[in-house]
Amino acid sequence: MKSIxxxxxxxxxxxxxxxxxxxxxxxxLGVADAFKSPMLHYxxxxxxxxxALTLVRLFASVGLWIGASWGGVLLVAGTAAExxxxxxLPRSVRPEPTELFVRLVLAxxxxxxxxxxxxxxxxxxE
Length: 126
Fold this sequence. Notes:
The chain is mainly α. Helix content is about 80%, strand content about 0%. It has one domain (about 5-125). The protein contains five helices and no strands. The two termini are about 20 Å apart.
C-alpha cells in the first residue's frame, strides 16, 4: 500500500512556496510598496535578481504541486541562491528574517522528503 503522506507534504510545501512567491511578486512589482517604479528604487541589477528568484520560486511551487522532481530541485537551488545573494540585494528587496526562516524550513523539508524517497527506493531494490 502506497503512503499518501509524502504527496500531501509535497502539496503543503507547494502551497506555502506559492504564497511566498506571490508575496515576492507583489514586492517586485511594487504593489507592496508606494514606489512609482520598483526598478528605479531598487536598482536594475537588484530588481533583475529579485525578479529571477521570484520566477524560480513560482516555477518551483508549480513543479512541487504536480509532483515533478525538478520542483524540489528549483526550490532548493532558489533558496541557496537567495541566501548567497542576500548581501547583494537592497534591504527593501530582501526577505524578512521570518520569511527567510520559512524558506529554509521548506528547502530542508523538501530535501528530507527526497532523501526518504531515495532511501525507500534503494531499500526496495535490495
